[in-house]
Backbone:
């Protein structure tokens, strides 16, 4: 799960500090032509370098990656604008700064798992490929709403959740339209077309910092839970979710035989 990549600390850890310094220096973007099986990831060296081809990724990840990159770079911008240097305009509470730093470090690891994994496949990249670590991030983000190990474990311990296994939930069966609606246009990125390049001036940055600096993100989010896409009367999706959950507790040999269910 994504909580495996959630750092215990950032301050004083030279490796994690280096990640925070590196993120603004390499900018990923993604595009997708409708009705094509692959989306294209580009990279650029801000502020002037033109984007160049990095890799293809399955088109099923297009909207997920757009949403991910918006938050990834937003958190990085907020760290650099409000939590470093002598020109900061606002005092950021330690809990907020720590949350932003840990999230950026974790998200850097997650996105590199997806991008590097697709690059390694090259011409053999399958449009149906799934990246387990990126899927784990998506499910945890949607269902739990937090990525730190304590919050994930607290979710698992709730009696109502014991029949589910986060690692076996298919992120494509979750209702991401409901997730976007819960975040709202500002925090969800629609106000700025999911690009930090469209943030204009200090006042808009302050609005975004205020949106992040709320219980929904910083102090703990209840998550969306298992809000599934409806399929007919909704029963089919619920059954699939249950099957995927109990698969996780059975022996691998038998589990492999059930992959076609």
Residues:
């Amino acid at each position: 799960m994504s909580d495996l990549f959630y750092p215990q600390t950032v301050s004083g850890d030279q490796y994690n500090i280096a990640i925070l310094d590196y993120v603004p220096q390499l900018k990923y973007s993604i595009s997708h032509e409708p009705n094509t099986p692959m989306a294209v990831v580009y990279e650029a060296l801000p502020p002037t370098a033109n984007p160049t081809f990095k890799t293809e990724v399955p088109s099923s990840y297009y909207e997920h990656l757009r949403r991910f990159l918006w938050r990834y770079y937003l958190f990085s911008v907020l760290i650099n604008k409000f939590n470093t240097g002598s020109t900061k305009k606002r005092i950021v509470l330690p809990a907020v700064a720590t949350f932003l730093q840990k999230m950026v470090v974790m998200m850097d690891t997650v996105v590199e798992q997806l991008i590097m994994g697709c690059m390694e496949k090259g011409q053999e990249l399958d449009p149906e490929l799934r990246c387990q670590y990126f899927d784990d991030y998506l499910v945890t983000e949607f269902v739990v709403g937090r990525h730190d190990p304590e919050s994930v474990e607290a979710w698992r311990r709730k009696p109502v959740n014991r029949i589910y296994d986060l690692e076996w939930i298919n992120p494509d069966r979750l209702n991401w339209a409901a997730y976007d609606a819960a975040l709202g246009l500002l925090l969800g990125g629609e106000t700025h077309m999911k690009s930090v390049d469209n943030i204009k001036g200090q006042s808009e940055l302050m609005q975004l910092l205020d949106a992040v600096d709320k219980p929904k993100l910083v102090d703990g989010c209840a998550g969306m839970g298992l809000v599934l896409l409806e399929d007919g009367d909704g029963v089919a999706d619920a059954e699939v979710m249950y099957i995927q959950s109990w698969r996780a507790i059975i022996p691998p040999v038998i589990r492999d035989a059930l992959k076609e269910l």
